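Please produce the structure of this protein holding KG4.
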Amino acid sequence: MEDGRAILSNVVHSQIDIHRVYGGVVPEIACRAHIETIHPVVEKALADAGLALNDVDAIAVTCAPGLVGALLVGVSMAKSLALVTGKPILGVDHIHGHMYATKLAFPDLAYPCVSLVVSGGHTSLYHSTSEIDHQPLGGTTDDAAGEAFDKVAKILQLGFPGGPIIDALAKGRDPKKVVFKRTVPESLDFSFSGIKTAVLYRARGQDAKAPLTLSADERADIAAGFQEAVVDVLVEQTLKACLKTRTWRLAVGGGVACNTRLREKMTARAAKEGATCYFPPPKFCTDNAAMIAGIGYHLFKAGRVSDLTLDAVPTKSHRP
Ligand code: KG4
Ligand code: ZN
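Below is the modeled complex.
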């Protein structure tokens, strides 16, 4: 990445095919796959950019939050590269990266803005005052939105990852055919475990043990009703955050930001309330390298550099 804007290379090694057979990410397998692929990925990133390792000014790496095994592989690699080259190392919070994806797509996006990150592991609202300063407003108290999509797809035996499958299945369906209760906390938090359980009972009976006998049509209607409920809650809470902070710019990121219905409903509702809503293109919504390097550039410029004591932190956010 050059100057936080120009993407010289963006190599993504997806593990979706490895985990599909298990219906979800298996941490141990994810960690091993990271070890196997990190060298070829770094080599390809340099080759695509036409650079040698010594040409780079600094090395950015995701250090929090996430699966500790996967984080450790990246952090160890980055520290080794920093040690042998003498280049500075920049520890990046993965969630900040997701928020930066909007900036990559819309360089003119100004601050402050309200940021919504909806991914497989996170559903969080922030008041963002710069690329690298984000004050938390609210987050999920149980499942993340993407996690709910994945678990519901598993319950309905639709495949993995659930988000894109449910998105496609719900297209052209009447989302009012099967209606699920929306949980909208008074605060700016989210809760999606109730709706996941409601889908489970609907599909497998009140004891959740009955065999799945629903037709493909019925499953698609449930998927559409579930998606509509999740989208409605995300839209409601996000616009509430805009109102509370009197901020009328809104950036959405993370894998679930690919969702067609979320993009439609959030954009329409924001326009109605007089807010401008920014969604990155799908390839920047899901995990990618450019968003991490972009944050790295801004941390470097601000002098918020890490050192070789940098550690992988699975649960907490990283604030250099
Ligand atoms: O941001 P991401 O690539 O990885 C994490 O940091 O978690 O997000 C992955 C999540 C998965 O749960 C996946 O089901 C969801 O994003 N996702 C979607 C869509 N595309 C991906 N959810 C809803 N609709 C989509 N079109
Ligand atoms: Zn992510």
